[in-house]
């Protein structure tokens, strides 16, 4: 078999036992890698119904098909487990040199079982696996942890994924960090923390065996050349944070916990402003010629020294959505999340929920007591220092508020409503427990069903149905019969990239056209040159459907029902008062209709379950036996 | 007719302007506006505007009044007096 080693590494933390599992080629052809393979490993290894923070959950890591090869933007891996936020599948993707090391060490994936009694870290040195004490690493930031382990081995080719204090403290919005990049969403860091696993380090010294190196090199060179052209220029120069002003103009920029879609100070927290005043450099993920990540640096003032990786999703969550117009406070808050190991999106949306509680008089200054501010502080929208301080309190579960917000919006609002008889779940902006992304869905009707039905919750990267809405291929303000198929199509399109995995920013660099017709034949050539398989358009297209289906199957086994495909209360009941999106909600009737036509487009039942025949068509007969109808 | 033109992202960097006012003949099309921008801001050619100076480089797009994106097939339509055109480029994915 080319492109794979055929080996999955299993590690049992409590006993330190390790074993190798071999998989047949047909399994690889079905699940490929990235989030699909990681989710399949979850299906095979997680005890259904387990508490996500119990030993019954497993950490499943799957490498990338193109990691370690010359294919641009292929240095990514997928990670999955049962999410402590959603209690459904939690999958995350990260660009990382660790993906390359994993491949070069001769492993296609890793499954970590059980929980350690003491804090531990794993070292994979090609085919040798050892588990070490990690107590001396406790409390270190993510960067400090990576550096400490690298120094210990005296080898900068030792690549590490690790958690920060957030994961150690079982903060449900904690992430996993590597090379400054993050497996950010769904609370993977808390799962690592529950296992007392601080880090996984890999040194891989082998090569990657591909079927047709000459062809793969030529294809990669052509993509590399295209990636230096106009198709990626906006990413290279401004990065994703240029979306702040775009969304603001369209009335879609989450502002003050999604109460508004237009932020009056958007210019001050825009990608353009960042570029002009705070940009220190751009950096790239492993194997990436684009280098989209903008690093913001604060040089003076109370946040001097802050240096954060600024993406649009981090920026909306920790600026406009908290009503904050101070870019320096935003860079500091993002830096805190990066270093303390928190998902910037879920952290920002959870803080904005708390700020709205304060705005409504539910929380008072006293609720925000902490070591830094023993008398508490005023947590009104726009208070940048409050936002910064709350990121620290969340990571350490400090005080009443830090401990509450560490649970994320779904659990924090449920607890508050029970304690004080409030209705704060109405402005808890999550779907299935995962906080919403930076696009207000009240006037993105196609996206609204993509989000509601999203298997990992409120996520823009798995659905991608905002594309037809925002780009004007359909009327974003209304619903029609085409939206179910559009939501299906865009979701499975995204899943192809997340499975290989390839960064979606390369999508115009194959032929100049980003659609399936433009990209799939080129991707098939890359797959075939790597593996020696004979994939064509249809086989590439099926990658996405299979990836999405295995995640959906996992959720069904965990008890998913149609009611779980929901939107936040606010988006269904509270229209915005100003801006281009004023006056709209997604009504109950609209959402139920959208779910009907989406399930139909997927080939599922009216209740959103998967017929056995459908699963058999996809080569998932064993899944059909368990959850097919 | 008079329209307001706003620049976001790369078009702002290339033009050095946030917004301009354009006084145009009635019937001026969106394609005519691309030509005009190419003449006034040559730095846009090759990244915001295609080398032919006739069309926008995808995914750069005109948005009309924050409500409607002007598709490639609609470039021969005309804006109206008082309209606001935003030249933007949406990022998605990652």
How would you describe this structure to a colleague?
The complex is a heterodimer of chains A (629) and B (94). By secondary structure, chain A is an alpha+beta fold. Chain A folds into 3 domains: 197 residues, Aldehyde ferredoxin oxidoreductase, N-terminal domain (Aldehyde Ferredoxin Oxidoreductase,  A, domain 1), CATH 3.60.9; 205 residues, Aldehyde Ferredoxin Oxidoreductase Protein, subunit A, domain 2 (Orthogonal Bundle); 192 residues, Aldehyde Ferredoxin Oxidoreductase Protein, subunit A, domain 3 (Orthogonal Bundle), CATH 1.10.599.10. Helices cover 41% and strands 13% of the residues of chain A. Chain A is built from 26 helices and 17 strands. In chain A, the strands form 5 sheets. Chain A has a 6-stranded mixed β-sheet. The model of chain B has no long low-confidence stretch (mean pLDDT 93). Chain B has one domain: Ubiquitin-like (UB roll), CATH 3.10.20.30. The longest helix of chain B is centred in the middle third of the chain and has 11 residues. With 94 residues, chain B is α+β, with helices and mostly antiparallel strands. A 5-stranded mixed β-sheet of chain B has the order 2-1-5-3-4. Classes of the chains: A alpha+beta (629), B alpha+beta (94). At the A-B interface, helix 8, helix 9, helix 10 and helix 19 of A face helix 1, strand 4 and strand 5 of B.
- Binned strand content of chain A: 5-15%
**Count of individual helical segments of chain B:** 2
- Helix content percent band of chain A: 40-55%
State the domain count of chain A. Answer: 3
> How can the largest sheet of chain A be summarized?
6 strands, mixed
Which radius of gyration of chain A do the C-alpha atoms yield?
23 Å
Strand tally of chain B is 5
Low-confidence stretches of chain B: none
Mean pLDDT of chain A: 97
Per CATH, which architecture of the largest domain in chain A? Answer: Orthogonal Bundle
Q: Which class do the helix and strand fractions of chain A yield?
A: alpha+beta
Shape of chain B: globular
